[in-house]
Amino acid sequence: MRLLQQPQLASKKETRTVGRGFQPLFFIIFTLLMTAGIGARLVYLQIAEGANYRKRAEANRIRMIPKQPERGNIFDRNGKLLATTRYPRSVYLWPMAHTKPSWSIVGPRLSTILNITVEEIEKKLDDAGSNSSLVRIARDLNEAEITVLKEYANELKDVEVHTEAVRYYPQGDKLAHVLGYTRELTPEQLKRKKQEGYRSGDMIGQMGVEKAYEQLLRGEWGGQQVEVDGKGRPIRVLGEKQAKAGSDVHLTIDLNVQKAAEKALTGRNGVIIALNPNNGAVLAMVSHPTFDPNLFSKRRLSKKDWESIQGENHPLLNRAVSSAFPPASTFKIVTTTAGLESGKFSPDTVLPTYGSLTVGGVTFGEWNHAGFGSLGFTRALAMSSDTFFYQIGRGVGGPTLIEWTRKYGFGEKTGIEFITEETKGHIPDEAWKQRTWKIPWTVGDSINMSIGQGALQSTPLQVSVMFCVPANGGYKVKPHLLKDHEEAKNWRESLNMKPSTVNTLRDGLRKVIAEGTGKALNVSTIPPTSGKSGTAEAWKNHVKANHAWFGAYAPAEKPEIVVLAFAEHSGGGGGSVAAPMVLQVMQEYFQQKTAGISVSSRADKVEGRRFSH
Fold this sequence. Notes:
The chain is α+β, with helices and mostly antiparallel strands and 613 residues long. The chain contains 23 helices and 25 strands. A 5-stranded antiparallel sheet has the order 14-13-25-24-21, with helices on both faces. Strands 7-3-2-12 form a 4-stranded mixed sheet. Strands 1-10-11 form a 3-stranded antiparallel sheet. Strand 13 and strand 14 form a beta hairpin. Helix 11 (255-264) packs antiparallel against helix 22 and helix 14 (332-341) packs across helix 16 (386-407). The protein is elongated and about 130 Å long.
């Protein structure tokens, strides 16, 4: 029996070992394939993706700590400081703090100290991105906040406090619409400006000179390149680039004249503008109501602050360039020019005036309801006779009147630096009337336009430019605010007016002051002056509340300043309401000259050097 069982046992042993000879081969092949795959992957990572991964590794190891540039100062024409920089302290946070376990402590603690929500902090960090450097989460800290941050320094290891530059306007609400203000970039602005080197939290000019000359004032960011450890803490400085301060900007504005204009307009909504009629330099530009641009340098606007700049009178609106109104009888300068240049009327033309004039079944009244007898151009300007200019408008017709309106610069931007803020106003014409009302231009439209009423709309700055034309002998100028704006200073466009036309205008505007509606300026405290009044029909809350205009230039024979005053819904006439405002500004300007402005200019320049970079 044992002899028979032995072969069976041997057979079973042989069955259990079948396939063992192939296992080493399978293992070797599998190992070779795995090794080849890993090798190929290593080759790909080292050669194809090596530069990319090295760059990412460097980004995790090296950080840029940016250094904000100091914004350029803004000065008036005599070197007086209008905008500068102050240095409050701000809170910065490393973005990686948001992802750390300690954020549950850090976030709420910062929220309590800084009085901002955790969600606001997180949004700032998210907007900046996890690989960005320090992110500002609050600025303009007070002493109490700084003290508390120091007390909790152990908890807030990823929080840093730095001094930074913040815009400051020493003149407060004076010059607000000229200077504008700076404010943190909105998310929409950041998207557009990233390619220009702007980053989250940057301040940018939002209106006025701050916006127009942003690139000059802004400067260039600097910073430190630092190596950080695994926790993101700085180890050593690898390199540094100094921030480059922005350029200082000197304006054409005369601060003393500006203050006089501010004072003259106190208590009224409106505009006062002073220009050099020979080169377009803006000496003063006031728009009321106004606001304090320093509000926008605060960490956040209070409810009271917000309400003050969002009032029903729209204090942020620059009425000098962004609002248009009927120019009223100031426009008779254009009507006179159109009449004389058309060849249909001469400087010797005399026309009867009436209490009213009926044309095409429509009655157009005289402002005094009686008329002034027979008048020529100069006396008609002095008395501001409506019925005289109705006849001129009817005589030249709509196309000629519109042509000269355009030549004077109405219906287009003046060219001042406030490109995005300036409106063109509106010149009605045949095409507009057909498009809007589906009816043709009529004689009545020409009559309305001849006295600056109807659908004609102009900005106060456009009206100021109009007054420059007779003042400088027949040239349109380009208003500008940059003192060294050579292109604007040297830009003069001749309207190719006959000398007799210019002389008639200047004689008539002089008579306005000497014996007409502008007698308020016929005083010994200023040189002989020329000007024109205007009263535009307007309603407010269904109650008639007229706009008052007065524009003037002086000295009459050799003008060096044009002043325009506009009082919105004043309820009074141009000669009684706006002319006294013009007088106050003129008096300040000529008192400076009498006192010897060159002496104070030298002193102001010394002051300017003290504040410049």
